[in-house]
Amino acid sequence: VKANYLQFNYSVDIQPRQLIKSKSTIAELLYRSSLNSILQINRKELSQGKYLLNPFSGQLSDSTLISLQTFYSNTFYFNQANPKWGIEVTQNRASGKSLLNYGFESKVLSNLIMRLRFRIGRSWVANTSYRFTENELNNSNPAFSNRNFNLHQQSIEPSFTYIYKSNFRLVFSYKYSQKNNVIDSM
């Protein structure tokens, strides 16, 4: 079977501190922030005598689709280089749709992650991470609908790190997580 393949990747890292020389309040906020963005698209379709050139084409026909995988991630950092404190917010999503023997199967995994870091004195660092995850699987074949799920998960993970010089590190952490399947009565 002839198939067309398309792969698109980009990565952008924006660091205003490389460009800003001003000392205004707005400039100081921009100086301390940075943004990283990533996008990947992998697409495989039955060949119809045309080339796949546009990765963002909205025309997606189930009759010609073999597989489609996408991933994007955006991370915002504030005070990343500051040794005393920093904030990080990441949002990412991975999705895929594939033609299997019994029909189409699609998967989606989304995450929202927030991290906060504080240095307490010379030897202690406190970290807190919060994560919200949505994990979903859908089958187009009714015979396999019992495999479908839509999990929502929340977790929080505080930790304390003791650092002695540069060659010893001791981490105390705890993680609380809650997970629910929100499809029907599952």
Mean pLDDT: 88
Q: Tell me the series of helices and strands, N- to C-terminal.
A: EHEEEEEEEE
Q: How much of the sequence is in beta strands?
A: over 45%
Report how far the terminal alpha carbons are from each other: 39 Å
- Anisotropy-based shape: flat
What class do helices, strands and sheet pairing give? mainly beta
Number of helices: 1
Helix content: under 10%
For the report, how would you describe the main beta sheet?
Answer: 9 strands, antiparallel
Determine Rg (CA atoms, Å): 22 Å
| Poorly predicted ranges | none
Count of β-strands: 9
How would you portray this structure in words?
Strands 1, 2, 3, 4, 5, 6, 7, 8 and 9 form a nine-stranded antiparallel beta sheet that branches. The protein is mostly beta strands. Strand 7 (149-164) and strand 8 form a beta hairpin. It has one helix at residues 25-31, and strands at residues 3-14, 33-46, 65-78, 85-100, 103-120, 124-139, 149-164, 168-173, 176-181. The protein is built from one helix and nine strands; from the N terminus they run E-H-E-E-E-E-E-E-E-E. The relative contact order is 0.12.
List the helices and strands and how they pair.
Blueprint: E1 3-14, H1 25-31, E2 33-46, E3 65-78, E4 85-100, E5 103-120, E6 124-139, E7 149-164, E8 168-173, E9 176-181
Précis, in short:
The protein is built from one helix and nine strands, in the order βαββββββββ. It has one helix spanning 25-31; strands at 3-14, 33-46, 65-78, 85-100, 103-120, 124-139, 149-164, 168-173, 176-181. The two termini are 39 Å apart.
What are the main properties of this structure?
9 strands; 186 residues
